[in-house]
Amino acid sequence: MSDRQEEQIISSASEPIVETIDEIQEDGSIIRKTRTTRKITKRVLTTTTSVKEDTETQQRNHNHSQAITASESSESTLKDLSVGSAAEAISTGSSTTTTTSTTTTGAATTSSITATETAVASSSETTESEEVSEKSSTATTDETKRTFKFGGIFGKGDVDNHPLYRFLAKFPLKQSPAPHTRPRPVKPIVYAFAPGWKVGGQETEKQDNKDVEAEKKDNKETIIGSFDVDSLKWMAYLKFNQIDYDIKPAFEPTMSPSGKLPFLALPDGSLVTDEGFEQWVQENKPHSNKSESLNIHEAAEAVAFSTLTESKIHAALLYTLWLEAPHFQGTTRQHYFGHHKYYLGKLLNYMSKSNIVHSMLLTRTQIDRELIFEEAATAIEALSVQLGENEYYFGKSTPSSLDAIVFSYLHVILTLPRIRNAEDGGRSGELARMVKKHENLYKYSQNIWKKSFAA
Amino acid sequence: MAARQHTEEEFAAQRKRQQEFEEAAFKIQTLVENVRHDPMKLRKITLHGVGKTREGFLHRILEPAFQARSLHEVIGLSRQAVRRMERFGIFEDIKIQLDSPRDNWLQDRKDLVDLGIWVKESSRIQIRTGTEAGNAEASLYGALTVKNVFGGAETLSTSMAFGTRTSSAFQFALATPLLADPDKNLSINLYSQTRNNTQWSSYEEDLKGGALKYSTLSPFGYHELAYEGHWREVCRPSEKASLTIREQCGHSLKSALTHMWVHDMRDEPLLPTTGHFLRVTQEYAGLGGDVNHIRQEVEAQVARSNNTGYILSATVKSGYLHSLNGKPSKISDRFFLGGPMSVRGFKSNGLGPREGEDSLGGDAYMSAGVSLMTPFPGLAGRESFKAHFFANAGTLVSVQPGQSATKTIDDLTKAPSVSVGTGIVYRHPQVRIELNFALPLMAAKTDALSRGWQLGLGISFL
């Protein structure tokens, strides 16, 4: 009888080590560094098969199991195991051995099971470590490992081991700390058109409590609200979902990755724009039981109403702000380009106006004031009817995304400064009048402002 | 025998001719020598071949010649006037002739002489296209130049360039010499250009503006005084732009007075072997506009060489941007440091404050470089190839408005970025090309290093 003994034991320890180091810099700021070291796990289980001349035959099978970090490869090895063990069990063929082989196969299977268990266990461990390392690698680390870009010049293989690169890696001989560090934000920052309706040196009619409170707050140098519909929509939606945020006033749409303000700067360095905003809020809102979600019908209606608002009322608002002289030369220029010098602001205002007109002409053949305002009036009436006497849309006790959209439009319309000008015959206030006709919308907008912003 | 005689005769004849020639020249010379200081003045200057050039302009150029009082002065001042005319670049060919007056009643006046000038005006319109290489940038340009537009050697030029660093540039310039002096120049420039800074700072800058410049030569050097008005927009940040760069996006207006003084005593600017060079630039921005600052830059260079082809040169460059209204500086005005033409061993604009992969620029910098050029082994005969050993150092820091001067100086000196290296320098007639192997010895954590080989192509190096 042959005596097969194959013993191969190769094992290397592997553990992911996560270190968090806080370094205090010379200027007082603290840099947190996360360093993750992950090594490849290799565990090899060996069992030797020895067939002796004794009556009792013990057969153990070779079991090589290598638990490697990739789970797929571990599966394949397990398959090999099962095939191999079965083959080996069959190869030793004799009646006695068959019986024993069954047992041994049983043993083999159990051992293989244990092998799989351990293999699975080890692979799962390593996958966990992979996740940890991936997460830490996405976070911005201040690791100063400098890599070589064109490593392939000196041939393939491990770039960092080439003697030239090993030599070069010694330089610089002395490193000094970074000259500029921007403290990482703690809360997400919304870059939005801000502040709200505090307009310097222009006649603003005090509209009930809204402006008074806004001005009071602005005197204390806090920024609430925004004069821009999209920015206010984001702020309202974040407030409804109880997400804490900082506001940074921004007036240049080009600074945003999508070309439109507002956008969100997260503490980990990534940016969220229009497309991913709602999803991000849903993912990151604090989970609480009292948030009521809309059912299918309500969700569909919400989509319909928000589309209605964002097309009809938006068009009327754009018309009022950009295409009618009183607001265009005063309010809009002041808000969007007030921080520039006067003539530059005027020039940029005109350039923006031609862009707006161009975008409006994409969806209609001509810009007809009567039609636009008629459609806006119908839309406002529909919103008013839908709201009824409820506090929020669909009778919920907490506001939804539709509330954010409708509120932002209503608030911006209602807080447009009233231009006392005989020239335009009061046309500039037409949109505001249309909204005020519906008491419930007026109260609704005030209510949300008081609850979410002014409080 | 006969041939030999023939050549001997020729030789003798030649010698005789030469002798006669020398005697005649000697005669004229003695004649002129004797007459040199005799009273003589210019009576009339006649210009032939002038079409578009203004009379008043030419009168101004030639006016000083009338002050000659002797033959010696007549010849000297006429030559000077002609040289001035040549320097304007509007004449292709100038010939002069001094002669006694043709008029009959002046036949016996020995003290009057007439000057005749024959000129050929060069063609007015010139169109040039080509490629141009500057400091680490190459561009394709087309230019239309109209010379002598209004008859007084004014130049009108319109040019268009598309390049690597300046992605598009349009310029319209009208330049005129003042007071018929080719050294004094007044020009109006209008330009619109886009600079592509995505590679080191992830943004592009649109610039539209104009400048009114006056330049002159004085015994101290070249002066240029200008008023500039710029409308700049920092826009189109790339995907990976950092937040600080994004916050810099926007429009700004700059209305500034600048002055530049250049004192250049080097033998040539690309690879100087002797001499020194000093350039001082100041800019005061604040006459309206969004930015209010003083920007100062100083560059000095010294070069020494010996006869065996070893050249030692040292350069120092420093700049400071001081904000006058308490607001932080804008990225369009800041300084950048680093690169194959600045501190070698670091990536282009790689020193100083950085965020992520973006270079933010700084408000104060100091840099110095020492280079030793030696004859290249194996190419010792060729002067344009040199082996190069250098050491460069530089610091770029940002200055908060209201910061004390001691803190700025402290920041500048406490942690310089130093590099050494060696390489080859090739001096092409238009540019200098360097291939260096650079090793940074000291660097800040965020500096973008360029260890190893680095290629530099340009005109002014550290």
From TrEMBL, chain A:
Biased composition (Polar residues): 60-76
Residue ranges constituting the Metaxin glutathione S-transferase domain according to the UniProt record: 377-448
Domain Thioredoxin-like fold, first and last residues per copy: 231-324
InterPro entries named among the record's database cross-references: Metaxin_GST, Mito_Protein_Transport_Metaxin, Thioredoxin-like_fold
Low complexity: bias regions: 85-126
Chain positions covered by the region annotation Disordered: 46-141
CDD domains associated with the record: GST_N_Metaxin
Top-rank taxon, per record: Eukaryota
Protein name: Metaxin glutathione S-transferase domain-containing protein
Automatic annotation (TrEMBL), chain B:
Alphabetically ordered keywords of this record: Membrane, Transmembrane, Transmembrane beta strand
Keyword flag Membrane: yes
Keyword set includes Membrane: yes
Membrane-topology annotation of the record: Multi-pass membrane protein
InterPro entries (alphabetical): Bac_surfAg_D15, D15-like
Residues covered by the Bacterial surface antigen (D15) domain: 148-461
Subcellular location: Mitochondrion outer membrane
One Pfam family recorded for the sequence: Omp85
Protein family per UniProt: Belongs to the SAM50/omp85 family.
UniProt name for this protein: Bacterial surface antigen (D15) domain-containing protein
